[in-house]
Amino acid sequence: MARSFLVILLACLISAGCNRGPTLVPASGRVTFNGKPLETGAIMVQPVAGPAAQAKIGPDGTFQLSTFKPGDGAIVGTATVRVFCRKDITPPGGEQAWGPSLIPERYNRFDTSGVTVEIKAGMPPLEISLSGK
User: Fold this and answer.
1) What is the dotted CATH code of the domain comprising 23-130?
2) Cα dist. 32→18, 47, 89, 92, 117 in Å?
3) What is the pLDDT along the chain (133 residues), one digit of tens a residue?
4) Which of 16, 40, 64, 76 is least surrounded by Cβ atoms within 10 Å, i.e. has the fewest?
5) What is the pLDDT, as a whole number, of residue 79?
6) Residue 39: CB partners within 8 Å, gap ≥ 6?
7) Which of 10, 20, 24, 32 has its CA nearest to residue 127?
8) What are the extents of the domains in the chain?
9) What stretches of 19-119 show up as alpha helix (H) in DSSP?
């Protein structure tokens, strides 16, 4: 009986260790466009494998990435970045609508942004510098 208990306990411990999911680390930073902080928008960071981390961009261009729950960070490794920043043209009392992009459209997509970051433990805040017309 004790042997059966130990076998079951060992199996539970092994399966629990295998189901922890990807390694996340805290990740925050700032997004600028032509040297000035973006004042609104969102950023997404897509790792090679696993779910993307995302965040709203604050009025000073700063963000804190979340993958599964608020502020939990991003998956360790190289990741592609996309940034969404559009003029809000929501009329008072109306449904939210978005106007033209405030940054070049290429930054709106992972496959065209050309921006990558390396997510790792203990890293300083990310500096995402965008440029263009």
Assistant:
1) 2.60.40
2) 39, 21, 22, 29, 15
3) 555 444 454 444 444 445 578 899 999 999 999 999 999 999 999 999 999 999 999 999 999 999 999 999 999 999 999 999 987 766 777 776 778 899 999 999 999 999 999 999 999 999 999 999 8
4) 16
5) 97
6) 57, 59, 60, 61
7) 32
8) 23-130
9) 110-113
> What does pTM read for this prediction?
0.79
Question: Which parts of 1-133 fold into alpha helices (H)?
Answer: 2-18, 110-113
Cβ distance 74 to 81 under 8 Å? no
Element of type H or E holding 127: strand 126-130
- Rounded distance, CA 32 to CA 76, Å? 23
Does residue 73 contact residue 66 with C-beta atoms inside 8 Å?
Answer: yes
